[in-house]
């Protein structure tokens, strides 16, 4: 072999697998750079590209971007891209992220866990997350909890969720009501207890949630207004039952 042959570089001796990896890298790098672009349309296309050709090496970057991405529809695409990757790769990263100091990181990690639906994540849904001081994080935790709760532990989850009755504005209260209703009749005992709580907002929210459980077609606004009338009259919703 001549000196010139020896210096021609690794490309000459590459096999098909190495060449394929290089082609994948060449196609993926623009997408990864696109996730940082200042234009949301470019970031959206980049997330779509990464999800269309999933590569475990890009999971960390997707999760990092979820924590700072300002646009909802881009975050949704990032979540979709993560669900396209092996759970064995995404789960450890997401479980670490739910402990982040950044609220959006916690919220998005929880949201993605709910989409993946792997119950091995259940131990990470702690009471602290279910009562997180940030409403978006708490709402994500509620939605994720009712997806991941193991059979037989619904009652315990209902008890924890009931501690959040009366919290926040309409959207937050609606999220909690939906989470409780999705657990089914197991929530009735905690709702009955909450109907006599000292806090009027808690009583109202409990009554409205119970109505939604009994009548799924009832709108939340209607349920809240009826509950307000009952509470204003000094009742607890048991009259006539």
Give the helices and strands as they follow along the chain: HHHHHHHHHHHHHH
How many runs of DSSP E, i.e. beta strands? 0
Give the distance, in angstroms, between the N- and C-terminal Cα atoms: 96 Å
**Largest β sheet strand count, sense and barrel closure:** none
What overall form do the CA principal axes indicate?
A: elongated
**Cα-based radius of gyration, to the nearest Å:** 24 Å
Low-confidence segments, given as residue ranges, are: 1-10
Q: How much of the sequence is in beta strands?
A: under 5%
Overall pLDDT level:
88
Helix content: 55-70%
Tally of contiguous helical segments: 14
Category by helix and strand content: mainly alpha
Structural summary, described in words:
The chain has about 240 residues and is mainly α. The longest helix is centred in the first third of the chain and has 19 residues, at about 15-35. The chain starts with a helix and ends in a 9-residue tail after the last helix. Helix 7 packs parallel to helix 9, helix 11 (about 170-185) packs across helix 13 (about 200-215) and helix 12 runs antiparallel to helix 13 (about 200-215). The protein has helices spanning about 5, 15-35, 40-50, 60-65, 70-85, 85-95, 105-115, 125-130, 135-150, 155-160, 170-185, 190-195, 200-215, 220-230. Helices cover about 65% and strands about 0% of the residues. The radius of gyration is 24 Å and the shape is elongated.
